[in-house]
Amino acid sequence: MLTLHSPISSLIRLKDQTKAGLAKLGITTISDLLYHFPSRYADISTYTSIAHLQEGQEATVRGRLTKLEAKKGWKSKMTMTQGVIEDVSGSMRIVWFNQPYLSNMLSVGQVVELTGKVSLYQNKPTLTNPSMRQEKIISIDTHDSLFSSQTSGESIDTGPLTPIYPETKGISSEWFHHTIMRALASIENIPDHIPPAVLKPYSLPTLKTALIWIHGPKSKDDAQKARKRFAFDEIFTINLARQKERNEIKEKTAYSVALDTVDIDSFVARFPFPLTSAQTKATTHVLEDLERDVPMSRLLEGDVGSGKTAVAAIATYATVMNRPFKKNSPAEKTHDKQTYGNLQVAYMAPTEILATQHFESFIEFFKHTGISIALITGSGARKFPTKVASSQTPWTTISKPQLKKWIANGEIPIVIGTHALIQKSLEFKHLTLAIIDEQHRFGLQQRKGLAKKDAHYPHLLSMTATPIPRTLALTVYGDLDLSVLDEMPVGRKRPQTQIIPETKREAVYEAIRAELGLGRQLYVICPRIDIPDPEKQKALQVTSVRAEAERLARDVFPEYSIGILHSKMPTKGNSSETKEGVMRDFAEKNIDILVATSVVEVGVNVPNATMMIIEGAERFGLSQLHQLRGRIMRSSHQPYCYLFAESNSPKTKDRLTYFIKAKNGFELAEYDLQLRGTGELTGRRQWGVSDIGMEALRNLQLVEAARQSATALLKSDPHLDMHPSLSNRVSAIQHLHFE
Ligand code: ADP
Ligand code: MG
Fold first, then answer.
1. Cβ(283) – ligand 1 distance below 6 Å
2. H helices within 588-699, ranges in order?
3. What is the DSSP string of 343-365?
């Protein structure tokens, strides 16, 4: 008998090509197939036939590309992609300016949908810089009452809609539709993992109904209700996972950090700056948490440059000035005092360069205390202070086995590192606090891994500069308490951000040349390319980064050294062929100009890089632009950010102006979410939330409902023993999110 877990081949005979296509999508079982949702529903009435186009009309045409070529304008040196699109009624010219990668992205014979304003060129209709169809989700309405139990009477019933599935090599949308309908007809039993009592208050359809409605909707209304159900389903499940985890952590014991014996004020007084009031507030939260023996789970959110490291340093200081005894337990107290070192802190950063930077700033913070600090990364280990008199640096290189021994016996209280910190062979004696910089998630498993044999669980301080909206934070960080650094240190130079028209390009290059002459450095960010196939997308990015670097080297800045950085490069290693190698060359100023994709956005500190050009700026989300710009705000020199846009529509201008004016990244993230949807959210793919789940995040009401439902269910069934299928989904999510 067919079940959800049966392989697709038990339903239908598969051609090799189809098999390969399915494998690529990770679809093997009938269940996988049923969860492959349409990206949209065709509504043929929205197309205009080419023969009927009028000058000045905003229109969408759908047809086949019959011609395509890339050219350079003879005077402007602007690249131009020209083509012809043809439908049954006729054909027309299309042209894109300044989007050289388009000719790689598209090919003759392909069917595309183009939207733009019709103009006349040599008396014939033309579309200039039309937008292309991006696979879009029907949005979950944010205005009507989300959970209304009645079908809204207003809905226009267009009759059966044709679902369109994401384009995949070797598998047509029709094949998906046909096979899925067949699967739905052949399977008797589709049990719902969500209890009816949870669905009912919100009038959400059961799983089986929702599957039928999403794949074969009779109306848009059905499709929308189905999508709501799946969106709710996902947010609800993530909430269960997070809350369950939170409850489990609360049952563990952590070392409590005594504050009355530690002179935190003097430690802070040595800083070369006074704390901002946001830093003081966040520090207070953290210290209060550390004082308790319930493990802290706190997220510190703050824009790049808001000073998270100082908060981390204070928490570290309070911790390592303590010894591992329990209060009110004199016997243990004496025993521990004789045998053991201090409480320990692990501080993890996503890259070797960042870990090294933290190591160096911690040496500054701690050098007067006599406390030892170690650095451990893929390429080796260091220890501060050094006993070697001749050493040029305040630290020495030591062997990893030696360092591990010292960490294991508790002699080194502060250990900074990359992922090398959570390897199996590394054991702490009294790990009390784990500080995690810019990791998207760090949960139960990782903490368990760090804690190892120790009966104590580490407190967790997770830090991030990734601006995300509140609904997403509530969901993916549902297990963490939040502190926000919403204030920048005083005296920081505001970047000068300008939207530059193409005619001023040369002038900007000259202004940059002057700054380069003063020894500053420049980032050039290439436009984002968004196409469904991630592999193709990466390949195009590489092409565009290379091309731009070559152009700059040849035509603009031949006197400077130019490097490139893109996501196809391996991450680790010293060579200039790796991301870390290139960043190091840039940091050491062997490279003056770095041409990069947006991979540069995750945290490196090159204070001397004070200029940034962002090409195709309107293609980025505002919060992503904000993060990119954060790279050049790390010095006392005036930073400059130049935005070039491919489109000069008023809408583009408005958005970019908003970017120039907004106060912080979180404000921009909210604006992005409401204005352009979740596609704009930074690092969206890293959250482990599907597109449909992400879409739900525009709806605070739905997110709150899912949260409350999860809390209520866990109250009556804390370990989900009574809901085994839900429990399975929750564990699957827990594993998925901790890569
Ligand atoms: P981030 O939040 O991006 O990790 P950092 O901790 O790296 O920021 O701090 C950025 C810079 O600001 C550092 O050079 C740091 O010394 C400095 N800084 C931190 N706090 C303050 C403050 N209160 N006043 C002035 N400068 C500060
Ligand atoms: Mg930082």
1. no
2. 622-630, 650-661, 665-676, 691-696
3. -EEEEE-SSHHHHHHHHHHHHHH
Q: Average the pLDDT over 452-479 and give the result.
A: 84
Counting ligands in written order, the one closest to the CA of 308 is 1
Closest CA to 559 of 509, 505, 631, 632: 509
Percent helix / strand / coil, the chain, rounded to 5: 40, 20, 40
Taking 80 as the threshold, does the pLDDT of residue 145 lie above it? Answer: no
pLDDT over threshold 80, residue 77: no
User: What mean pLDDT do residues 452-481 have?
Assistant: 84
Q: Is the beta carbon of 310 within 6 A of some atom in ligand 1? A: yes
Residue 411 has pLDDT above 80, yes or no: yes
Q: How far is the CA of 311 from the centre of ligand 2 (A)?
A: 10
- Give the strand pairing for 58-72 and 344-348: unpaired
Kindly state the DSSP code that residue 552 receives in the 8-state scheme.
I
- Tens digits of per-residue pLDDT, 686-698? 666 777 887 788 8
Does 148 have pLDDT greater than 60? no
Residue closest to 449 by CA, chosen among 440, 436, 466, 465: 436
The number of the ligand nearest the C-alpha atom of 283 reads: 1
Mean pLDDT of the chain: 85
Bigger pLDDT: 388 or 289? 289
Ligand 1 near 276 CB (within 6 A): yes
| β-bridge partners, 542 | none
Tokens of 525: 């960010």
CA 704 to chain centre: 22
**558 alpha carbon – ligand 2 mean position (Å):** 34
Pocket test for ligand 1, best of 309, 437, 488, 637 (most atoms within 8 A of CB): 309
Q: Give 305's pLDDT tier (boundaries 50, 70, 90).
A: confident
Contacts for 711-715: CB closer than 8 Å, 24+ residues apart: 711/239, 711/243, 713/195, 713/198, 713/240, 714/240, 714/243, 714/244, 714/247
Question: Is there an atom of ligand 1 within 6 Å of 304 CB?
Answer: yes
- How many separate helices (H) and strands (E) can be counted in the chain? 24, 23
* 497 neighbors 632 (Cβ within 8 angstroms): no
Residue 727 has pLDDT above 90, yes or no: yes
Helices (H), 9-75: 16-25, 30-34
pLDDT at residue 283 is higher than 60: yes
| C-alpha 624 to ligand 2 mean position (Å) | 17
Shortest-distance atom of ligand 1 to CA 357: 7
Determine the distance separating the centroid of ligand 1 and the alpha carbon of 673, expressed in angstroms: 28
Supply the DSSP symbol for 7. Answer: B
